[in-house]
Amino acid sequence: MGVDEISRLAEFAPMVGVVSIAAVGGWVLTTWMRIRHGYPLDGAWGQAVYPKTSTAEQERIKLLSQENAQLRAELGSVKDRLGNVERIVTDSGYHLTQEIEALRASDTKAPNIIGSTKQ
C-alpha cells in the first residue's frame, strides 16, 4: 500500500468508528428496552435466554390454563341461565301471572260478599 491509500483510509477511520459505536449503542439500547418491558432475550443462535422456565413453572402454567378453561365454561353456563331468566321475566305471560296472583291475594283479604248473603 502506498502513502496515498493509507491517507485515504485514515480519512474514513473516524466515520467507521462512529458507525461502530452507533451500532453497539443501538444493540445495548434495544437489549435494555427488552429487559425493561419483559420481552425474552435471544442468544447468538436465536434461542431464548431469558426468562428460563422450569418444570414447576410449566406445571403452574398448565394448572392456571385448566382453571381458566373451567372458569370460562362456568361463565358460559351462567350467561345461558341468565338469558333464560331474562326471557322469563320479560315474557308477557309472566306479568299476567303476577297480576292474577295479586288479584287472588287481594280477594282473600277482601270480604266475600257473595258467600255472605243468605237465601
Chart the SSEs and their pairings:
Elements: H1 3-36, E1 41-42, E2 48-50, H2 55-90, H3 92-109, H4 113-116
Antiparallel strand pairs: 1-2
Structure overview:
This protein is mainly α and 119 residues long. It contains 4 helices and 2 strands. A hairpin with a 5-residue loop joins strand 1 and strand 2.
Number of helices: 4
Query: Overall mean pLDDT score?
Result: 82
Spell out the helices and strands N to C.
HEEHHH
Q: Give the strand tally.
A: 2
Classify the helix fraction into a percent range.
over 70%
- Helix/strand-derived category reads mainly alpha
Indicate the overall shape.
Answer: rod-shaped
Biggest β-sheet description:
2 strands, antiparallel
Roughly what fraction of the amino acids lie in strands? under 5%
Strand order of the largest sheet: 1-2
Distance from first to last alpha carbon: 142 Å
Task: Flag low-confidence runs.
Answer: none
**What is the gyration radius calculated from CA atoms?**
40 Å
Features:
119 residues, mainly alpha, two-stranded antiparallel ribbon, 4 helices, 2 strands, rod-shaped
Briefly summarize what is shown.
The chain has 119 residues and is mainly α. 77% of the residues lie in helices and 4% in strands.
